[in-house]
Design brief:
By secondary structure, the protein is of the alpha+beta class. It is built from 7 helices and 20 strands. A 6-stranded antiparallel β-barrel has the order 2-3-4-7-6-5. The chain has a 6-stranded antiparallel barrel with strand order 9-10-11-15-14-13. β3 and β4 form a beta hairpin. α1 packs across α7. The longest helix is centred in the last third of the chain and has 18 residues. It is globular, with a radius of gyration of 20 Å. The relative contact order is 0.18.
Length: about 375
């Protein structure tokens, strides 16, 4: 299992190191895909039971026995899946369900709307009711997203250049409800696969003849752990090798983060400032240039960072997501990412920021000096959000 726990000083040091990299392009035809030689629980990426529950199935309306695709809750109202799963279908014809086995699903949800990406194989399903609230109403939850149902965030950090290279040859987790090639095995399974390429459109994974995605698993997630030890969805299943243990192509979510953010913003009318937090925690999240979080009164708060000439990023563990200009980046650039959303490379410490980061530190003296300065800066920046 590749969960990594890191001291804040190491994270800060990573934010000061930048190494460029290269990626290649790849295209493939879309195939419907399920998990072969998988396991009921993830093996390469640690997911809590509440996070595992966020991975659900898509079927014909109120007919779990007709499951044909997989989707994942990225908020308590939005499911990310593959476009070809819902093409030529109406929202009223579909159901999204939770649980490892469809026959004992803790909850099933009507779909109120579908938004298909115009250019890539990705779609968002909007639930008619809040998933966390529904579990409480059914007597199957306490209202705490962390223990009941925890949506998994889409990866917002660019996989271009060094951060994409950091993921190469890493074992990650895929999941789905499709064909297992064993009539005794049904429901949701996980499989550990290797990332072999980050192309312009896809995260490309390899089952190495052991395990992988198969027929009926389209739309399922590929999940990795970021530098803060949090699971993120790198992509959703598009298609791949019909051996079900070879190469698969999953649409990169970092490439379509603006489109995903626009979908989350569409739900703000149902989740206004001052309303219940649902799946939001104190650390919150970024939605475009807006930081949103759950305050001490368990109410939604939002702050438009763009209006403050700042970027919304993860500041630190005490503050969470808030308006901030990441250190090591040029304030005047159009976009600048926080390295705290990136990934730990398998070799020498290196990570890249878009937006003017051009620092390369290699000698021990420089590393030591930067480490001390970074520690002081991080200590001074600890504060609560106003």
């Amino acid at each position: 299992m590749q969960i990594k726990s890191h001291h804040r000083l190491l994270i800060t040091l990573l934010a000061l190191l930048c190494t460029p990299g290269l990626v290649s392009a790849q295209t493939t035809e879309s195939l419907s895909q399920g998990i072969v030689n998988g396991s009921r629980a993830p093996r390469s990426v640690g997911l809590s039971p509440a996070e595992q529950l966020a991975i659900g199935w898509i079927s014909n309306y109120q007919s779990p026995e007709t499951t044909f695709c997989t989707g994942t809750l990225i908020t308590s109202r939005i499911v990310i899946t593959a476009n070809h799963c819902v093409r030529n279908r109406q929202a009223s014809e579909l159901t999204f369900g939770l649980g490892a086995l469809q026959e004992s699903a803790p909850a099933m949800f009507d779909i109120s709307a579908i938004e298909q990406h115009p250019n890539v194989d990705a779609a968002m399903l909007f639930l008619a009711t809040d998933a966390v609230d529904t579990l409480v109403q059914l007597g199957r939850g306490t209202g705490a997203a962390e223990t009941d149902l925890q949506p998994i965030s889409p990866n917002r950090h660019t996989l271009d250049e060094a951060d994409g290279d950091a993921l190469l040859n890493r074992m990650v987790e895929v999941a789905g409800y499709g064909e297992t090639r064993d009539p005794e095995l049904e429901g949701r399974f996980f499989a550990s696969v290797e990332i072999i390429e980050i192309s312009d459109e896809f995260v490309v994974v390899e089952g190495n003849g052991v395990a992988g995605l198969c027929f009926g698993d389209s739309g399922g997630p590929v999940i990795a752990i970021n530098v803060r030890g949090k699971p993120v969805i790198l992509g959703v299943e598009h298609g791949g090798d019909d051996t079900c243990s070879g190469t698969d192509y999953l649409v990169r979510l970092d490439k379509i983060r603006d489109w995903i953010d626009s979908g989350i913003q569409r739900m703000w009318a149902q989740n206004p400032v001052g309303g219940p937090c649902h799946d939001l925690g104190f650390k919150g999240r970024c939605v475009g240039d807006t930081a949103e979080w759950c305050d001490e009164n368990f109410q939604i708060r939002r702050r438009d960072c763009g209006a403050l000439n700042a970027a919304c990023t993860f500041v630190n563990e005490e503050t969470g997501y808030y308006c901030n200009v990441p250190r090591g980046c040029d304030v005047g650039t159009e976009f600048c990412e926080s390295v705290l959303e990136g990934f730990i490379p398998p070799g020498p410490l290196s990570v890249t920021n878009r937006g003017g980061c051009a620092s390369n530190v290699t000698d021990t003296a420089s590393l030591t000096g930067l480490l001390l300065v970074a520690a002081l800066l991080l200590r001074r920046r600890r504060r609560a959000r106003p």
